[in-house]
Amino acid sequence: MSSVTIKDLDALASKTLKIVVEGKDLVGEDAINNYQKAYDDFKKNAKAVMEPDRTMRLGIVGQVKAGKSSFLNALLFNGRDILPKAATPMTANLTKICYAEEPYAKVHYYSEEAWRGIKDLSQKYDKAYQEEYEKLKSSIKNERKLHREIVQNIDEDWKACKELTEKAKALSPAELSEKLREGEKTIRLEELAEYVGSQGRLAPIVEWTEMGIDTQSLKDVEIYDTPGLGDPVRSRGKKTEDFLKKCDAVIVLSMASQFMGEADVNLILDKLPNEGIRRMSFVASKFDSAMLDDSSRGKANLEEIFNKTYYVIKGSLEKSLGKQVAQGNKRKEAIFDKVKEEASDHDYLYTISSLLYGVAQKKKKNLPLSDEEKIIIERMQERFNGMSTEPDFLEDLAGIDDFKKEFELIRADKEKIIQERQADYLNKQSLKLLKELDNIYTKATRRLAGLKNKDIAAIKEQLELVHELITKQRNKIKVIFEEEEFDIRSRYTALADEIKRMKKNYQLFPVKNVQTGSYTSGHLWWKKEHITNEYVAEIVDVENNITNYVDDLNKKINDNESRSLDSNSLGNKIKATVIEGIENTRKLDEDEIIDVVNSRLRKLRLPSYGLLKSVNYTNKLTASYPSSRVYGEEISGLKQKLGRILTEIGSDVAKGLENKDQEITSYLDAESVSFADELEKALSKDLQEQEVLLQNAEQSKSSLEGYSTLLKAEKEKLVDLTD
Question: What pTM, to 2 d.p., does this model score?
């Protein structure tokens, strides 16, 4: 396959499509449409993936606030703030960064249709806000407290879109309409601040940006800096997915203090393209904060805490990814295997602190530090023996230079990575096309055999037999769906009970007794030193409890959904019931009927529950406790707040499961009634198409023989190409 080019496959697939389409009257539209879809999917990203002598595409993915922009500023621009930092999900930008001798920027505004979608979600926020206001206004008199309580109960996606539409009010209706119609605009790099970030006047209506920068490290690579996955703006989320499908390698960023929970693993792996990710690196950002979160008492050795924190994070990552393998998800298992395979000659987990790297650069230039930088440096000096503030020491501790070596390895492996990506892409697309072509060939040869063994009278008899078959088996099929519904509802009930019991595992968090001060009393030999201690709790530990609870609930729900509609079990029962009916007569073709049954079964899709978002709940904690620590008597209030949030999460899940239970019941009730009818309709349609062919049997035989011969030849060519 390595010597096959995009032109080879496209030339063969497009020629085959013309042949396939010619047989629409011979094999029916469904089979033709399936091949057409496979060909369209192949063409969609083929040009971008297979372009010869192209630059390599590197995707940066992770949640908002993982520090992607700070990381890229450190990696590419020596710590200079070229890329703006996002304050919220809405100010996060989807950015393409590439090399250009003459620096430039291009902004792409939302389309008018996409903006209407944003306004719709913003209006949902308004409606939810008003409803909550009416419920709470009599019990909460303080307006600030009332507002805070209301917004805590509103969906984060709606809040994000409300933020966008509110910020867009800075534009006049005429200017807003003009920009949305304009589509895109090329500007000077210095003007970009007006279009991105929390302070950009036009940022609310910019969907994505492109930056051309005269930096040598970008000469042979394009970087896609993506906003947080799970984007509330659907059009921008779709654009992110389109960009990722073109990528050859991916860097996954996650905050070291909350590194790669299961929900993050699921979300990120689900967003990655199916074909050809050959290099993936994981970066634990804000590593300084993770070290400071260590529970060791007293002043600890910096090197020991560094190593301990690193191995905790690495163990967490391998555990999370390993569970994907244990769950039998073949695609995720393949991704994980590739990560491990590529790690044989380089590491795949890096710890970095963009903040410490920035401090080092400022110290080299004698520039003043920000308040945040001063606080972190002071805390690290207080906590760790061996902590130095020398620029070279900070730069080494920051880990950015280590990842620069990895970045250079990726660039050096450009040709290999792209070639493997292209080979994987072509191979998988060839197999998809071959599978659909084989389905058409099988159908054509079956119909040809039918023409030799059937006549119109036999077809009419079979139509009657199909009606009798479905009539006799209808109740049995209905019972199968009812049993499936009962099993699913039983699992949901058991899940709801299990979720109630899980809450207690997340109610406790570490409380430490720490020295908060000292003083000396007396004089001479009566001098006495007094140490003051106080109990302290870290807010990040409580946030971790909430995040872990949500992650574990998501896993429980995902596991339950993966078993909710066991299509193999359900399908086998239905097929066994249909075959049982066929065995009463030898006048129906079992293979033909089972093909139609399989086609109908593939259309079954249960409503999905979806993932909980931990940020919806951790935001409620940080709104009440904006500082990083809580002392003394405040800890009791923090425990109560955590308990209320955990209860709310459990209630939200229970309510969601109840709603989902009702949706599933409605869906399966409808399927239990309609499945047999739809099956009879599909079987009858298949026989009616055969009847039409029999009306001119000799010509149809000749056409099908010629068509089958052509399909077989095309199959052989595709097999040769795939090999």
Answer: 0.62
